[in-house]
Amino acid sequence: MKVLVTGANGYLGRGIVKKLLDSGNEVIAVDFTVDMVDKRAVRCAYDLFAVENPYEEFGKPDTLLHLAWRDGFIHYSDAHVVDLPKHYLFIEKMAKAGIHKIAVMGSMHEIGFFEGSIDEKTSCNPITPYGIAKNALRNLTAIITKQNGQLFQWLRGYYIVDSTSYGSSVFSKLVAAVQEGKELFPFTTGQNQYDFLDYSEFCSQVAATINQDEILGIVNICSGHPEKLADRMERFIKENHYNIQLDYGAFPDRPYDSKAVWGNNKRIKEIMSRVSKTQYR
Q1: Most C-beta atoms within 10 A of its C-beta, which of 49, 75, 79, 194?
Q2: Contacts of 277 (CB under 8 A, 6+ apart)
């Protein structure tokens, strides 16, 4: 396939582009800057929303994987609402031009406050601008693809674990603190339970989902089981042999976070069983 990946220079984009290339796809990687993107990709530095005819401009790709999103870790940023019409219009242009498949990165924050296992039928009641905007784009993209005859995949992401200081996750912040020589990391109580997935596996699941057309709609990119944040952080510290301790209770728990939430992994397990895992390693 020829896959157009937007937001390719971002935290998720870099790893996903590599996995797509490793599995034999041609990748057109688009972002404001593309200096960190795998050089095997066709790298295009563009203001995505300023392109009049993106389907033609980017070489008539078979699949759009839309990762581009501002302030993904800042859940109350105005950017989520301001940018929503731009995402809608861009996806509409790609659909009307006749692309075969449109896949978009979503988030478990579309669900809102919920406890238990999330599947593709779980009701969405988002309570942050980030969740509201993502959920709105999901509904709009479903309408656009139905009207224009595209295959549609919504990749609902959960919590990513990665031992790099790049990014804004709590794990990235801990790595940055270690690199600064700090021995104490201010932390919450860490009792909430989430669905954690290592970065490489997250990217592999996304690539595997894109590489098949049998399972469509909402696909949870997840591990399928909950774990306490405190337990995962302590394990993360041990795995990487860091000399740092968590300062429990330094920060309050976020009031809008669920006490225990995780993704139903039935669909992604089926996808991964169909696609040889060795091509993503």
Answers
A1: 194
A2: 204
